[in-house]
Design goal:
With 338 residues, the chain is of the alpha+beta class. 28% of the residues lie in helices and 31% in strands. The model has no long low-confidence stretch (mean pLDDT 90).
């Protein structure tokens, strides 16, 4: 896990004109991001509309549509199927407004995964800036970027501003601020540091599931958020990301004991329910995105060894539709007893 750095970027925007927008904005954000980045990166004269044809040299293919490498461990290839995960995850911050007036403020979060993606932050910001002004999604939502902030590990911190609007030649322009890549990295080191703030056994934990979580355990969709099922999804996601965008497979000697410990964690109470929304795909048409949301409370003898992986996976989500913001959860409470 030490070789899997993340960065959380929050884009703060302002609409240029009023527009109807979907309540769940992750799909709109994904389509727009892929379009903008392909404009910047695709080297093919006729553009690759049905999969990257040169993932060996194209930055878009390496980060947004990475191919499955036959040399990867067979177990991991079975876990990810025919599609390797991209190096990003989007989050609409639960903005469920269906209409944005002209001049309305709105934001979204983009988590980047892996050193290669983090080194492309200036290009990604430039692509979002240019694309937002041209229009986003089928609705052509036009906005301008007011600032870009790298969110910090602590929720109490305002983060580090990477770019912000400033007056230049009589008009406002997005201007880069000085920063070092180490300033924006969130990784396993930061996760361990957060977990070590508890110097006594952590025996109570609450997870708030913010967007539909759809995961499987033993071939069945999980309807009740048992901790073992959730932790298996967390480990699965981190293992795959570590292989595709990190330093290689997360050793079983490290994640195996976490899964064993998760089996002993009790689901004390939950207030979750199954929900969903309609999504449109060119291939499948309209279909329902489903999963459970709500809050669950867990208990065990000492949950501290599980905290780093749980903390890190908050930002990259679990289950189906993680790229567009599904499977997002927050560690709401960690308690310790003497």
């Amino acid at each position: 896990m030490e070789g899997l750095p993340l960065a959380r970027l929050r884009f703060d925007l302002e609409t240029l004109e009023g527009s109807q927008v979907p309540a769940y904005k992750g799909d709109m954000l994904r389509m727009a991001l892929l379009w903008w980045l392909s404009e910047f990166w695709c080297p093919m004269p006729d553009r690759c509309r049905h999969g990257c044809r040169r993932p060996d040299v194209c930055m878009f293919g390496r980060l947004c549509e990475p191919p499955v490498d036959p040399a990867w461990p067979p177990k991991l290839r079975r876990l990810m199927g025919n599609t390797a995960p991209p190096a990003y995850a989007l989050w609409d911050l639960q903005d469920r407004r269906g209409h944005l007036d002209a001049g309305a403020a709105w934001s979204f979060e983009l988590t980047l995964v892996g050193e290669l993606a983090l080194r492309q932050i200036p290009t990604i910001v430039a692509a979002v800036q240019q694309g937002a002004e041209q229009g986003m999604g089928r609705i052509r939502l036009r906005s301008h970027v007011r600032q870009v902030v790298a969110l910090a590990a602590s929720p109490d911190s305002t983060g580090r501003c990477l770019a912000a609007e400033q007056p230049q030649n009589g008009k406002m322009a997005l201007t880069w601020q000085s920063y070092h890549l180490d300033d924006v990295i969130l990784g396993y080191e930061q996760a361990l540091a957060w977990a070590q703030t508890w110097n006594r056994p952590v025996r109570a934990l609450s997870l708030r599931y913010l967007s539909p979580v759809k995961i499987k355990e033993r071939g069945q969709w999980v309807k009740v958020p048992t901790f073992s099922a959730v932790m298996r999804a967390v480990v699965r996601r981190l293992r795959i990301l570590s292989q595709v965008h990190g330093a290689g497979e997360w050793p079983q000697a490290e994640f195996g004991p976490l899964l064993d410990l998760a089996e002993a964690v009790r689901l004390e109470h939950h207030e979750t329910f199954w929900t969903g929304y309609s999504r449109h795909s060119r291939q499948a048409g309209h279909y329902e995105v489903e999963g459970f949301i709500g809050q669950a409370w867990y208990a065990g003898d000492d949950l501290r060894p599980l905290l780093p992986a749980l903390w890190l996976d908050e930002w990259v989500h679990i289950g189906k539709g993680y790229v567009i913001g599904n499977g997002r959860y927050a560690i709401e409470l960690a308690g310790s007893l003497a």
